[in-house]
Inverse folding.
């Protein structure tokens, strides 16, 4: 940007950037705005400030249960898919596997299959096997979806990892297990955190798979979607949305801080 | 048994069809600075990694201090390694890098701190303990890697081209420090390098390797002054080779008939050869003395004409064309004076002289 330009006469790029950011963030900001609005209709003009929707949110067991369902599935999926991703990334970057390209391609396929196709095929498979639909089936589907993401994040982290570091730890008297905990894990940790956050987020707001594969326990996106038919439920959903927005803001900020810290400590070893 | 700290007994290592190390059998003495020297890909690193335990020999046994090592994993071997890229742990500071291997040493916090301080003192980095790995220069990382290995008080310190990544000045300084350090602490060093000058500077003994085989083991002076084979003579320093045939041999004095140098007499030859055997006569460039006016004697003298020359600062190299030899002979001359008029007269006649002590005779096949 031209530094000599007075702020009241911005150049084209500035205007573009401002419009762009407004389009992206303005709708998101409506969420907290209307969550404090007295009227139960989402429309201007605003009617006054209230916290009742937050109260109502806390007093809606269905909603809280849906939230808990999503958190449970999300946490389990994040941990498991990150673990699988870690093992796969280690295998891919450490050992010469015959047909490595094919294996990689196979694992990455869920990334490019349209969600609806994946959902239908899983539904067919699961009903063929006579497995009852539940949060377990949702979790299973989400793991299928999330593992490739975890792998991508972790492979890029592991690829820069110097093999000699593990040998050095071994040479200095540590066994394979302690070598992992004292060397490999701390160095790969920022990647693990990134993978956990990413996979949790993907699972947390995934709709299509959850819609097809859940039974009586809805996840949060399903609950929100079904609430849209009942206008009275909407303000509480807004309050929940606003709360999640604030929480995720802090989580992302923390993750970014953590990532930067990681980048700083290994800037010399070629990451 | 002698005082061998490491004993290689018929050690081989094959990677598929690649014979990285082939039937190595030799001993390294306690307290020695021992180097493995050879061209790239000759198996030096592989041999070193077998001592550390990162590679398992395909055949043979490595003994460390009398103990067979084939069943001992790397973390239980009484040796430590300085890696070529130093492998400093990026997530730990200098102190914690040095302390890494001391977890099971059973020291109190205070004892450990004292040991680390001593180690930092030893590598001349006192006060650097809190530095992160990324805040160190190449030479400093190298020292930290040294301290981290030495604090474990290994029976043998393994070093894989530890000076390769440093610039020339720093490398020369580190060579001196490394040698002093080794003499000070008295630990056996097994040092890998492809730099022959470095090996000559540092080592008590050098094993010259080629294509997986150990060709010769000797002191630096012996390798340079009386190498045992044409490969070693050629690999270490530069050498002029002249084809010839032994005409007489009495005791350790020989005469060899060559095309380019005429009859050459050799004293104190390491190779004992008999009359009629094919031979190489080998003379180092600095041992052929150029004379620019006819010395009048035909003994140990050859006449040639000046070819291209190169000025190297402390010395000059020039090529002398000899009759009956396609390749010109390389002659090195110390630049004792600042004027070097002799270098700038190509096609000038020059007489090369040597003493019979300067000549090495090697079998030729
Ligand atoms: N893990 C391995 N798998 C297959 N071949 C290997 C392996 N390690 C080494 N080799 C081969 O063994 C031979 C010796 O390798 P080595 O690394 O010991 O050589 P070096 O003398 O250390 O060479 P440099 O000076 O280049 O480091 C080479 O031909 C190399 O390609
Ligand atoms: Mg090597």
């Amino acid at each position: 940007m031209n530094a000599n330009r007075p702020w009241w006469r911005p150049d084209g790029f500035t205007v573009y950037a401002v419009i762009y950011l407004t389009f992206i963030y303005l709708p998101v900001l409506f969420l907290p705005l209307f969550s404090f609005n007295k009227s139960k209709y989402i429309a201007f003009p605003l009617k006054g400030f209230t916290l009742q929707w937050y109260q109502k949110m806390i007093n809606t067991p269905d909603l809280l249960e849906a939230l808990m369902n999503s958190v449970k599935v999300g946490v389990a999926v994040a941990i498991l898919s990150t673990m699988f991703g870690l093992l796969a990334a280690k295998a891919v970057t450490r050992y010469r596997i015959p047909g490595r390209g094919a294996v990689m391609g196979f694992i990455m396929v869920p990334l490019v299959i349209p969600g609806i196709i994946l959902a239908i095929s899983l539904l067919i498979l699961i009903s063929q096997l006579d497995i009852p639909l539940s949060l377990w089936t949702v979790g299973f589907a989400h793991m299928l979806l999330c593992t490739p993401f975890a792998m991508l994040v972790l492979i890029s982290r592991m690829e820069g990892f110097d093999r000699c570091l593990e040998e050095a730890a071994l040479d200095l008297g540590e066994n394979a297990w302690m070598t992992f905990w004292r060397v490999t894990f701390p160095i790969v940790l920022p990647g693990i955190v990134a993978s956990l956050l990413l996979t949790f987020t993907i699972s947390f707001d995934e709709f299509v798979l959850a819609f097809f594969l859940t039974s009586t326990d809805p996840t949060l996106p399903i609950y929100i979607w079904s609430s849209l038919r009942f206008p009275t439920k909407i303000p509480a959903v807004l309050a929940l949305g606003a709360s999640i927005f604030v929480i995720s803001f802090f989580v992302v900020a923390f993750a970014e801080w953590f990532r930067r810290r990681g980048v700083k400590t290994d800037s010399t070893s070629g990451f | 048994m002698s005082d061998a700290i490491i004993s290689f007994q018929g050690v081989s290592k094959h990677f598929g069809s690649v014979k990285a190390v082939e039937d190595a059998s030799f001993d390294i003495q306690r307290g020695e600075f021992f180097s493995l020297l050879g061209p790239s890909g000759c198996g030096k690193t592989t041999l070193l990694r077998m001592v550390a335990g990162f590679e398992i020999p395909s055949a043979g046994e490595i003994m460390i201090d009398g103990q067979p090592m084939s069943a001992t994993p790397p973390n239980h071997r009484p040796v430590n390694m300085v890696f070529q890229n130093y492998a400093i742990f990026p997530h730990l500071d200098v102190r914690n890098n040095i302390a890494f291997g001391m977890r099971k040493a059973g020291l109190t916090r205070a004892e450990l701190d004292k040991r680390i301080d001593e180690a930092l003192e030893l590598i001349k980095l006192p006060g650097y303990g809190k530095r992160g790995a990324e805040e160190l220069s190449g030479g400093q990382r190298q020292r930290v890697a040294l301290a981290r290995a030495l604090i474990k008080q290994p029976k043998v310190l393994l070093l894989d081209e530890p000076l390769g990544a440093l610039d020339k000045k720093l490398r020369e300084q580190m060579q001196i420090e490394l040698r002093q350090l080794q003499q000070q602490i008295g630990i056996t060093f097994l040092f890998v390098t492809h730099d022959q000058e470095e090996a000559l500077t540092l080592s008590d003994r050098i094993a010259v390797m080629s294509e997986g085989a150990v060709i010769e083991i000797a002191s630096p002076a012996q390798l340079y002054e009386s190498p045992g084979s044409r490969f070693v003579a050629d690999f270490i320093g530069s050498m002029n080779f002249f084809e010839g045939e032994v005409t007489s041999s009495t005791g350790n004095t020989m005469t060899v008939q060559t095309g380019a140098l005429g009859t050459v007499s050799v004293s104190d030859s390491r190779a004992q050869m008999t009359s009629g055997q094919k031979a190489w006569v080998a003379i180092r460039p600095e041992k052929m003395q150029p004379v620019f006016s006819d010395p009048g004697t035909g003994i140990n003298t050859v006449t040639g004409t000046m070819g291209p020359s190169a000025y190297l600062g402390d010395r000059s190299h020039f090529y002398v064309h000899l009759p009956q030899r396609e390749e010109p002979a390389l002659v090195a001359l110390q630049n004792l004076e600042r004027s070097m008029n002799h270098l700038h007269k190509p096609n000038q006649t020059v007489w090369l002289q040597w003493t019979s002590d300067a000549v090495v005779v090697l079998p030729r096949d």
